[in-house]
Design goal:
The protein has helices at 6-11, 33-42, 59-64, 89-99, 122-135; strands at 15-27, 45-49, 52-58, 73-78, 105-108, 113-118. It has 137 residues and is of the alpha+beta class.
């Protein structure tokens, strides 16, 4: 069921930590078209910006393609099926982590939001988000 209510999204977020390590990489497709094709094929997600192609690669794929970034990340998936026009979930997650000094990059997909945090802080971030879900909005 799609959840749109702010309080229900927060209390129902059910954060889940992915065991994989991820890297955000960037390249200019025109300068490395073959590499860009490999990134597109391997990436968990991609985004095209004016400056280039951003790909989210697993540790193994980042190593294989020599694109290991400077900040290894872990992904926390919020299992709530939040509405695309829902308001407040991203803000609550960002505020909770920011208050603890944990940077995050939130990627919203169709079914779930995915929060990428530095690998060294992933367990702490998970516990904070679980506690925030218990408290609610």
């Amino acid at each position: 069921m799609i959840v749109k209510d702010t309080a229900q999204m927060i209390s129902g977020m059910q954060p889940e930590l992915d065991p994989e390590t991820w890297h955000f990489c960037s390249l200019i497709e025109a300068e490395a078209p073959e590499l860009a094709q490999q990134v597109r094929a391997a990436a968990l997600g991609i985004f095209v910006e004016d400056e280039g192609l951003t790909g989210v690669l697993s540790q193994a794929d980042a190593e294989r393609l020599d694109l290991v970034g400077p900040l290894p990340l872990r992904r926390i998936t919020l299992r709530v099926f939040s509405a695309l026009d829902g308001v407040g979930l991203t803000a609550a997650v960002a505020e909770t982590l920011a208050d603890a000094g944990i940077p995050c990059n939130v990627v919203a997909a169709y079914h779930h939001d995915h929060v990428f945090v530095p690998e060294a802080l992933a367990e702490e971030a998970l516990l904070l988000l679980m506690a925030r879900a218990e408290i609610g909005a």
